[in-house]
Hints:
Strand content of chain A: under 5%
Distance between the termini of chain D: 31 Å
Largest sheet of chain A: none
Helix content of chain D: over 70%
Number of strands of chain A: 0
Structural class of chain D: mainly alpha
Radius of gyration of chain D: 21 Å
Largest interface: A-C, 85 and 89 residues
Oligomer: heterotetramer
CATH topology of chain A: Helix Hairpins
Radius of gyration of chain A: 20 Å
Amino acid sequence: MSxxxxxxxxxxxFLMMTGFYVVIARGNLIKKIIGLNIFQTxxxxxxxxxxxxxxxxxxxxxxxxxDIYTHPLPSVLILTAIVVGIATTAVALALIVRIREAYGxxxxxxxxxxxxxx
Amino acid sequence: MEHLPVLLIVVPLMAAPLCVLIRQPTxxxxxxxxxxxxxxxxxxxxxxxxxxDGTISYAIGGWPAPYGIEYRxxxxxxxxxxxxxxxxxxxxxxxxxxxxxxxxxxKHHLFVTSYLLCLTGLMGMTITGDLFNVFVFLEISSLxxxxxxSLGRHRRALTAAFQYLxxxxxxxxxxxxxxxxxxxxxxxLNMADMAERLRDVTGVRTVLVAFAxxxxxxxxxMALFPLHLWLPDAYAFAPSAVTAFIAATSTxxxxxxxxxxxxxxxxxxxxxxxxxLDRILLPLALVGIFVASTVAIFQQNIKRMLAYSSVAxxxxxxLGISFASVNGLTASIVHMFNHALMKGGLFMAMGxxxxxxxxxxxxxxxxxxxxxPVTMALWVVGGLGLIGIPVTAGFISKWYLIMAALxxxxxxxxxxxxxxxxxALVYILRVVxxxxxxEPAEGDAHVTEAPMSLLVPTGLVIGAxxxxxxxxxxxxxxxxxxxxSLLGLSR
Amino acid sequence: xxxxxxxxATAVTIARMRSLLAxxxxxxxxxxxxxxxxxxxxxPDVAFTEAAVGAGVSTVLMLATLALTxxxxxxxxxxxxxxxxxxxxxxxxxxxxxxxxxxxxxPNAPIQLYPSPSYVDKTEAEIGVPNVIxxxxxxxxxxxxxxxxxxxxxxxxxxxxxxxxxxRRVRGDDTPSDGETPR
Amino acid sequence: xxxxxVLLLTLALPLVAAxxxxxxxxxxxxxxxxxxxxxxxxxxxxxxxxxxxxxxLRPEATLFEVVPxxxxxxxxxxxxxxxxxxxxxxxxxxxxxxxxxxxxxDEGHQTRFYTCFAVAIFAALGVALAxxxxxxxxxxxxxxxxxxxxxxxxGDEKAxxxxxxxxxxxxxxxxxxxxxxVIWTYTLAGTLDFTEGxxxxxxxxxxxxxxxxxxxxFGTGKAALMPFHRWLPAAMVAPTPVSALLHAVAVVKAGxxxxxxxxxxxxxxxxxxxxxxxxxxxYAAALTVMLSSLIAMTKDNLKARLAYSTISQLSYVVxxxxxxxxxxxxxGSMHIAMHAVGKITLFFCAGAIYxxxxxxxxxxxxxxxxxxPITTxxxxxxxxSVIGVPPxxxxxxxxxxxxxxxxxxxxxxxxxxMVSSLLNIAYLLPLPIRGFFxxxxxxxxxxxxxxxxxxxxxxxxxxxxxxxLFFYADGIYRLLxxxxxx
Lengths: 118, 491, 183, 486
């Protein structure tokens, strides 16, 4: 097993963790959603990285049938997952709009302070 | 009849958009009630058939596994489907009067739509035999529950929903990572198929990590201590009907999925012998039970108090899992059911109180035993169940849990479980004293009993906790069959 | 390799960025870069979707939100060590998990060998649509696609529930329908 | 009607009464009449089964299977028969008394009072008729819960604090000790049925059995074995009819009844005798007898003194069970009935004095015998019966207990019994003596003013009962004989 063979995965993991960090460390609600987006997009990359085969081609039948195709299933799954991701983002943003209206802020620390006072 | 498994999901799924089209609130509610009550009927039929003939496998669209998506119904998930759909139906029957107070009428049809979608998502997660499909339906139920929670009258409902959204999505993404890793190591997404293929790759580090991510993701969704942070606010500020519905169903389904993963996919040997899952779950469960119960004692908002109690009750379910024995699993499974009834009923009673008082604060509940005798009597019965007093369903759960602990000579655990139920006694008694032995506040003396349309469904659910405290062959009996099959001891 | 490094750099920049507007724009770029990488991974369908949805739709949504909420972000008071520790542990766990993974592009990875015959062969034989991904999406995993549509529908309903009538609410006449206002 | 139907009817009647009293909230006369009728009917139904049980029949009824092999089931055997007779019989008397007490005292929440009372009787009968440990445990807990509102009746801070202690101790002991004992027994023996000769013989080693016995003895908080006796004095904040029937009869007797049942039908007296695992329990019981008698002497509040007296008398029954000899068991069981009638008389008198003269402290009751001669005389009879002087019922049970102690070669315990009787005299007799022989304070020539008739008649009835029990003790002996293997 060559470490180089795993390099791609490690980068993907790094991306995921950057997103994850933004989600849990940043206090601005929009920033959190941005982090969530990065986190999820990176997970998509993880899936697609699995599917790739050395020397494989896009799994679309052209005139000439190739010998090796990249695995289609990760793509299929991720097409679904992308849609799920954008749906979550949309709901989250709608919530942020409402929170901003109700509280006048979208900073988590301020929100916590207001909620504690009540 | 052979399409029953998929009908159970597709019927409420298809009904949801129709609700948007119908729009007229009364019609929507009537239509949704017809639809939703058909679900427990279908689930009951499924359960009956599973108990008679064994596991049912249904290839969706006729595409056989492992290529296509399979629905796989055994005693465990048929049971979960039955009680989730029954409680969903019971709470929706209760909802019309309750939401009239809490949600603007222009949103009623959307509320019903979301409610149906949420139930669809939960049932979809339960019935499927495909890992990725779990994720998709998990998101359906999650997104709709975020929206439902945000409908609470108080603005804190919004922040509660947002917090749940963030933690819920992180949990779901963890689950997605776990599924991905497992897929990578096996090449399949079908649970049964994966269980076969995982036997060849036990001890592989990737599988270990996949297991960890799935567990953490699910622990977030089921609010296992210390990952429960989203739950108290979400339960406390959601509309009454939503709290009752989500408290009764959502965390239970996550516990179910954990059971499915641990026992059906990974297998007892891997999870317990190789990984020593019990060494992690047992202390977490116990600490969670004690911390959450103690915090519950100090709450002024009674919905929040019950929410913390839910966190503690999840601890009992996980504790049962950690024993990895027939009695332990029976305890977990039957407690999922019993707790769904008790908490559902309690939150419904809280809804009755909120309906009349407009508040769920302990101070406002003074003398409510006199002004709302029926509601409060129902609440007390539910509360007794949480303590685990005999004749209530909660006693049965506790019985199996203690038995499971004793048969493994875990004296300390048994003792802790019993002592913890006394914490429940403290927080229930606190409410009882205020409700029955204090005079109502000046302004609340004229408060009257909640309307029948709220009381009857509440009464039915609470009544069920008494029924299943005595007649246990339908609850503990089925749970036992399910537990045996999870451990591979039968069929 | 260059693309991956760029991706990483963009991600880190987003994490450190104070301006929300710039962060949103960079997220769009991040999605584009991601889509590019997906193209290299032989997943053109996904790449197009990601470019359209991730870089397009979600950026537009975020910008719209920013317009409503303002784009300043306050620095956070407390220390980042706890989240950082959580992230490091999670990341370390994942890296540990990669140790037994088949190498990138390994034709003998389990998913390439199982199930056999492969989706590609089966699709060719049973369905005959040239794009295997589309074919699988519509057939073997068609049910997931139904689920996906439902997710979008759910999100739509959720957004409606959240945003409908909110201007009335601002004016404060959003009373419950049965008219009785509980005390 | 078949005996098993009759058995279920016994339980159904108080439950129906509970529902009806709840419904007749606004019509006090109908409400109280309902309770009274239910009481009489219940007693008659129970009594109708006496011949069957005497002839050796054991009527049974089974309802639900709660856990595999264990159902909610009822079996009527001699000990349960006796307890059921005592509880239902005294319920009638107490209802009469309650009507007088509650009305003349103008208490609030009377509907809740009567409803909970009926539920408590239902639970006590359930304990009496239980056919297995699980059923017994279920009704034991129902009894605890249903009496909580009665203890907290007044609703003020003092009542709530008392009720908290009451519920806290009873639930804690039962949940933390008794329940595991039950489940443990189930895992050891595979059954929980009350079986003649016990179910545990040969199922575990002596150490396990010893621990199990301790769990049972202390877990049965209602038996008020020290150090778990605090709830009983705390319960005295309740209205006196509650103290009289529940905290001198139904609740506390349910406790010692449980201990007796466990000794006889779960362990089996042969097992206890042969393994000597119950020897420590004899001494624990003896210690409770002595200590609580001593504490009783220091109490000036009449109800508190009676409460400590009850704690002491309860341990006689536990002692009888622990002796594990035929006479001990019979004596202990008999004491359930004898003490019940005696102590309820004492409480009735205490309540009558409180309602009429508004006195609660013994030192304030000088000359009370001249104001309330009948009441004070009844108190004297009750006291003598509790002390164990012939010709009153209590003498028999103490006699058999002493015999049992001799059979078990525990001569120290015989001494304990004698000394404690002396102590009984010291704390029970001052009241009638001062009542009759000291002059009432302030008033030179007091007018006779007895309690209302509804209170007076019941206490006369139970006082007469103390005498009658002396002469008809043979019947009880014949009923209980099978327990002692005689």
